[in-house]
Specification:
Helix content: over 70%
CATH class: Mainly Alpha
Strand content: under 5%
Number of domains: 1
CATH superfamily: Domain of unknown function DUF1476
Radius of gyration: 17 Å
């Protein structure tokens, strides 16, 4: 039974590590896409930092990316930036890859 218990613990540890990495990648992606949007809205560095924190917080409203997409589209529209939902989703995909790469390089 010891071998089985060891394998079970190893799987649980790997699952926890994978979940933590997914969370960190998503948080980093949200920060990167917020910086992208802030640049389009021509925010100052201080405003960009605050905006990035707001976008990361917006992701906790509901499961999935819809809350982030809604916030970004609404904020960009309010700032008279001609960017649609498809553009935001494309930016999310691009920043997802970049966020994963950054986290892998930092380890």
């Amino acid at each position: 039974m010891t071998t089985f218990d060891d394998r079970e613990r190893a799987f649980e540890t790997k699952f926890a590590r994978d979940e933590e990495m997914a969370f960190r990648v998503t948080a980093r992606r949200n920060r990167l896409v917020a910086q992208w949007a802030a640049e389009l809205m021509r925010l100052t560095p201080a405003e960009t930092d605050a905006y990035a924190k707001a976008v990361v917080q917006a992701d906790f409203e509901e499961a999935g990316d819809e809350d982030v997409v809604r916030k970004l589209v609404a904020d960009l529209t309010a700032a008279d930036v001609d960017v649609g939902e498809a553009d935001v989703r494309r930016a999310l995909e691009e920043k997802q890859v970049e966020a994963r790469r950054q986290l892998m390089e930092s380890q």
